DNA sequence: CAGTGGTCTAGACCACATC
DNA sequence: ATGTGGTCTAGACCACTGA
């Protein structure tokens, strides 16, 4: 297979790029199994080692998961995959703030304000679904979440969110809209609590609160979800490990 | 080389482990060059491919840097290596908060308080060096830093810090104490500014500020540096990308 | 020019899953 | 028993670096 290709990039990079494209267009859905290395090697007329290197890179980026003896599977948020890999909020004592202690306050149709429009790269005033959730630690409210999904990518999302008990939004995005969240960008700020936030969090207005503003991106790099998480940091903190 | 080793771990993992140990004990210092793949393969009586896989993992973890045609080098904070890879504070407009706009306020000997002692796993009251720095954006003060280095790992650090113009602490740690920082853990909180912070940052006491508490770990996993960074978030924010 | 890492091949054996 | 990914080998050619 040494046909003196003028194409600059290494073969395994080209294979990887093509496989990512095929995952993206849904040829193999999340949870499903890719063809084996041998089959792909035959298909692309390359050696097993070259295909392996392509798949290994995809695995290291979390796009697929490999299991010896079974096969290579497209990463899914359900299944055995870590559901809280994007959570950076921890109780000051120790463990993560789990998702099962949340209550929906409200889910409604809404329009994107300036800030949301900027984050999702959509026009201000675009319609979508807005959802408010309150997370508790023991019985104490600690975190107020505001989530926005654009109608462009997630039409009728409010219907689905109203039905579901508070679960993983990203699981719903994957199952209902075939949108796999692979990247999030968060901006953290400190500011004074608004009157509304103070009411929900049982604190005084003006107290210092942490605000995490998140934009979640799909596998294709499209901004999908915008959310803010607001809470006091007497019981929780934002934690980030690098290196 | 298939001598039916009972040793459970793969060969390339064992090689990697041994190479990391050799880097750790200073056989090759930061910036220096490791032996070539061929030489190491001969030394360990293994094939080049196996040694390559060991080195590739070290490179992906940032321990070494590889350059085709030249060799494999132990990662150094000077040289061409990215100096701000642990910085997560950005101006709200755009770019990172650079390090060259800092002024030293004070560097002195000090004792570890409860919080520092907890972060660095040392006894409260242990002696060390404490340094205060103020970072500016244009002419406006935006960030107050408090840095603590234990005398155990960094004896006489105050002498060095007093001499240096405000530069990278991690470069000094590497050059003076042979401590290569490879991991940091940060906790972010919101709270009201103290009177001292308000004075330095030219704000009112009680205003909401962001506090980043960082512990930096050396290649061996030892906690080396403790620091807090405090600032308002009208001009800067903490930004984190995941995925 | 010789030496380096980067790519690619073709084969081997292994531990593990599934049937 | 068959097929999967995981490890390991031995050799090839390439682009790049530096003397």
UniProtKB/TrEMBL annotation, chains A, B:
Record keywords, A-Z: DNA-binding, Transcription, Transcription regulation
HTH gntR-type domain location: 9-77
CDD domains: WHTH_GntR
Pfam families assigned: GntR, UTRA
SUPFAM superfamilies: Chorismate lyase-like (SSF64288), Winged helix' DNA-binding domain (SSF46785)
Coiled coil: none
Record InterPro entries: Bact_HTH_transcr_reg, Chorismate_lyase_/UTRA_dom_sf, Tscrpt_reg_HTH_GntR, UTRA, WH-like_DNA-bd_sf, WH_DNA-bd_sf
PROSITE patterns: HTH_GNTR
Gene3D superfamilies referenced in this protein's UniProt entry, alphabetically: Chorismate lyase-like, Winged helix-like DNA-binding domain superfamily/Winged helix DNA-binding domain
Protein name, entry field: GntR family transcriptional regulator
């Amino acid at each position: 297979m040494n046909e003196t290709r003028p194409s600059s990039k290494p073969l395994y990079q080209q294979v990887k790029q093509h496989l990512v494209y095929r995952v993206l267009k849904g040829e193999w859905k999340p949870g499903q199994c890719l063809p084996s290395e041998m089959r792909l090697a035959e298909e692309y007329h390359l050696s097993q080692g070259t295909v392996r290197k392509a798949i290994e890179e995809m695995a290291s980026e979390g796009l697929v998961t490999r299991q010896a003896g079974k096969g290579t599977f497209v990463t899914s948020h359900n299944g055995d995959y870590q559901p809280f890999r994007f959570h950076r909020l921890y109780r000051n004592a120790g463990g993560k703030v789990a998702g099962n202690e949340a209550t929906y306050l409200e889910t409604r149709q809404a329009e994107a304000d300036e800030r949301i429009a900027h984050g999702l790269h959509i026009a201000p005033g675009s319609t979508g679904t807005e959802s408010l959730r309150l997370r508790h630690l023991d019985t104490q409210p600690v975190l107020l979440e505001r989530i926005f999904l654009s109608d462009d990518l997630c039409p009728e999302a409010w219907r689905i969110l109203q039905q579901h008990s508070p679960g993983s939004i990203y699981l719903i995005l994957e199952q209902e809209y075939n949108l796999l969240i692979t990247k999030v960008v968060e901006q953290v700020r400190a500011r004074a609590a608004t009157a509304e936030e103070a009411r929900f969090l049982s604190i005084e207005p003006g107290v210092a609160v942490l605000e995490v503003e998140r934009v979640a991106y799909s596998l294709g790099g499209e901004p999908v979800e915008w959310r803010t998480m607001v809470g006091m940091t007497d019981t929780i903190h934002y934690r980030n490990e690098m290196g």
